[in-house]
Every structure is written in C-alpha cells, then in structure tokens.
Amino acid sequence: MDAELARLAESKYVLVTTYRKDGTKVPTPVWCARDGEDLVFWTRSESGKVKRLRRNQNVELAECDVRGNPKSEPITGVARALDAAGTDRIRRVMARKYGPGGWLVIYSSRLFRGAKGTVCYAVSST
C-alpha cells in the first residue's frame, strides 16, 4: 500500500472527492479502513457519490474531520465498487475499526436498508 494511502486509512474520517459530469468536485467525509493494499469506504447505495462513481471512478482523498474540513493535501486514486461478498467483509472490517458505535451504525443500516442498501468501495492509488 502506498504510504500516503496507508496514512489516510488510519485516520477516522477521509474526505472523498468525486466529480460531477461537468467536472465540479463534490467532497464528502466518510469512514474508511485498510483492506490489504486498498483504502476502503462504506456508503449508502443510493447516495450521490455512488451515482458519480459509476460515471467516473477517479477520486481525491484527504484526511478530514467529521464536518469534512481537510487536514491534509489530497492524493488521487481510483475507486471500484465491491461485490456483495466484499461489501459484507468490509462491513466487518469497519465495525472492528470503529468499535461499538461503528457496529451499531453499520448493522442498523443493514437491518433497515437491507443487504443491498449500502456498498463498499476500494480505492487504490494512481
């Protein structure tokens, strides 16, 4: 794993910046974790970032606080959606990283939204 990506994977929040059709940047703070050589994040399946990532998988990543205020310079990467088995595995990774609060949020989401209500992405550096 790239050293910068590894550093970001250790932070509590990462600012994932996706791109609209017109190239406008849309930054969103997310929870993240490390999965092998990738930084992974979890989000709702119907979120705007998922729609934007279907069209353009290029992202910028930066460490941030809960409100999305950047704490580091951005790095570039490429995001890919994980399949259902990969998403289930990453939910467990995230629940371990974020402890009881993370477990509650992640599994409540699965209960109320169903197994397809959230999706995980793996980001590799470019």
Instruction: Give the C-alpha Rg.
Output: 13 Å
CATH superfamily: Electron Transport, Fmn-binding Protein, Chain A
Low-confidence stretches: none
Helix content: 25-40%
CATH architecture: Roll
N-C termini distance: 11 Å
Q: Give the amount of beta strand, in percent.
A: 35-45%
The assigned structural class equals alpha+beta
Helix and strand run: HEEEHEEHE
Shape: globular
What would the CATH topology be?
Answer: Pnp Oxidase, Chain A
Put the structure in a nutshell:
The protein is of the alpha+beta class and 126 residues long.
What are the key terms here?
126 residues; alpha+beta; Pnp Oxidase, Chain A; six-stranded antiparallel barrel; oxidoreductase; Pyridoxamine 5'-phosphate oxidase
Report on the structure:
The protein has one domain (3-125): Electron Transport, Fmn-binding Protein, Chain A (Pnp Oxidase, Chain A). The protein has a 6-stranded antiparallel beta barrel. A hairpin with a 2-residue loop joins strand 2 and strand 3. With 126 residues, the protein is α+β, with helices and mostly antiparallel strands. The longest helix is centred in the last third of the chain and has 30 residues, at 84-113. Helices cover 37% and strands 37% of the residues. The mean pLDDT is 91.
